[in-house]
Amino acid sequence: MVAALAACGGDTGGEPADDGQITLGFSQVGAESGWRTANTKSIQDAAKEAGIKLQFSDAQQKQENQIQALRSFVTQKVDVIAFSPVVETGWDTVLREIKDAGIPVILTDRAVDSADTSLYKSFIGSDFVLEGKKAGEWLVAEYEGTTEQVNIVELQGTTGSAPANDRKAGFAEVIGADPKFKIVASQTGEFTRAKGKEVMDAFLKSNSDIDVLYAHNDDMGLGAIEAIEGAGLKPGVDIKIITVDAVKDGMQALADGKINFIVECSPLLGPQLMELVKKVDAGEEVEARVLTEETTFTQEQAKAVLPERQY
Ligand code: GZL
Questions:
Q1: What atom of ligand 1 comes closest to residue 34's alpha carbon?
Q2: C-alpha to C-alpha distance for 311 and 297, rounded to whole angstroms
């Protein structure tokens, strides 16, 4: 177990720090996207800034690695545990083990579907359904007043993950009001550029008339752009593209006219997480749900803000 943690880049600390310093065990999804890289940096920088000892584990997008890391944090008797659950289901058993060990848990970024909300103290992250709705609202406005069918292909995030489930649901709810919008193909691109390119290649081969791509994150959208250009088409023109995240590479593509609209999803959860960690460690009551503030960007807005983007 300890070896696995070490392999995941975690600290094999062993005995809990007894120098009054809070020790936080953090299980990260992986390193699948630009968003995840920025999220990890935010957490590591904020822990250092807050004087919190961080035991960090990278699960390489595998739930079994996360569960293993969470159990190792219990063995190490860390003071607080936080994690971004790679998928929504299958956490109750390990969360009950952590609760029985008397260690408070904070969910960050993604949620779990557990009915027992006593298993964690707080969930800090975005409203993914709202993000999907914002994407749908832009598309409805873009095609306002037209009657021709609009063929949409969708690159979903990691199967079973909260962002994939909710971004899909929010988008479908908004466009579902007008029958001209048709999702002609929808498949997971696992939130990565490589898979996004691979799946978009397949979409292009099996669909002759694609009007719009809705990708659940920038990275899959950027991979899809490679596929679209490889097919001799102009991304942002022949095929309109909507993505979610607003990481630098996505914003650059938006400014360059290859993406048409981006819904922001902030990865900068570190500082708010560390405030929550200190409070739960002190036994203070905390908000059960901490929502992150985020906006949307058009091509013009991206050109204006690119120079100041942090990630
Ligand atoms: C969203 C986060 C998602 C990002 C992807 O909060 O969980 O996972 O949108 C990342 O880029 O891979």
A1: 11
A2: 15
Ligand 1 pocket check: which of 265, 291, 293, 311 to mutate, most ligand atoms within 8 Å of Cβ? 265
Å from CA of 242 to ligand 1 middle: 15
Task: Please tell me whether residues 55 and 33 are part of one structural domain.
Answer: yes
Distance CA 69, CA 59 (A): 8
One domain for residues 253 and 288: no
Output the CA 17–ligand 1 centroid distance in Å: 32
> pTM of the prediction?
0.93
Residue 20 belongs to domain spanning: 2-126+267-293
Given the DSSP bridges, would you call strands 23-28 and 80-83 parallel, antiparallel or unpaired? Answer: parallel
State the distance from the centre of ligand 1 to the C-alpha of 210, rounded, in angstroms.
25
Is residue 298 assigned to a domain?
A: no
Distance CA 133, CA 118 (A): 29
Averaged pLDDT, groups of 10, the chain, 311 residues long: 42 54 98 97 98 98 98 98 98 98 98 94 98 98 97 98 98 98 98 98 97 98 98 98 98 98 97 98 96 95 93 90
User: Helix axis angle, 218-230 relative to 248-255, nearest 10°?
Assistant: 50
Q: Which of 1, 58, 48 is nearest to 22 (CA)?
A: 48
What residue ranges line ligand 1, CB within 6 angstroms? 32-33, 35-36, 109-110, 125-126, 163, 191, 217, 219, 244-245, 265
Does 311 map to a domain? Answer: no
